[in-house]
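Hello K.,

You asked for the raw outputs rather than the summary table, so here they are, unedited. I folded two proteins back to back in the same session to keep the settings identical. This is the first:
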Amino acid sequence: MGVMTVSTRVRPEDLAVVAETRGHGLDMDQSKQNGGREDTMKPMEVVLAALGGCITMVALARAPKEGLDIRDLRLGMEGEYSAAGGFRMIRMTARLRSSSPEDRLVEFFHDVERVCPVSNSLKARIELEVVREQ
């Protein structure tokens, strides 16, 4: 089991949050009603993006091994959520070109979702420890 680290900080000029890891950055903002500018993704949109990205990467890696033809893959991620409870349901719509049979593609995407680490993290009960540094 590996360990991943990401740090976040508040950008003073506009109070957006910047997440950084391995030399890469991602800016996030709140809705206008909560004081944000809405010129970046919101954290819950980043969660949907991470899920879609993970499923796409797993699908592209596995398709050739399973003899499936997948071209021009695009996923639409839609989540029903509340601020207090998080996501209640996430719906994924797969758009792609393929000469493979439809029933195999449907089964394939169900299998991909089942092995996707982001999907499994969202469905798991994760222990969250909060530590305050002095």
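The second followed immediately with the same parameters:
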Amino acid sequence: MITRAKYPFALMAAFLWIGFVGAISFMEAWLKFRAPGLTLPVALEIGRLVFGALNIVEWVFAILILANIVFDKHCTMKRDLLWIGIPVLMLLLQTIWLLPALGVRTDLQIQGGAVGPSYQHFYYVGMEMVKVVFLFIFGFKLFKY
């Protein structure tokens, strides 16, 4: 049995996207706060830089995937676009709402201000988990036997 991918660029982008999210959101983010000698303001600045870059990379992957599928004349996946639509929606919410809100909290904390409790980080992690699950399902739907 030979396995082929319907949309190889979309397939590669989906699994690379999962890899980036896993490496940054689920590993780097919490490890940097355990680094000895790294002050909280520096860790927060690194986080802002890394998550800003991750956001850009995620948009590149999303655009590659959508372009590979939507502009294909023989696309048979239009009914399966929900599987990529949910991660794109999560990315959009993170871009226009969560990252700016977390940036305000970061600025306040770096300046020595009091930062009260917030669920924004939990929302962000929850959205990352939803993205990974839907991207994984989407990626497997791209294989045809």
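The mean pLDDT is 91.

Happy to rerun anything if the numbers look odd on your end.

Regards,
P.
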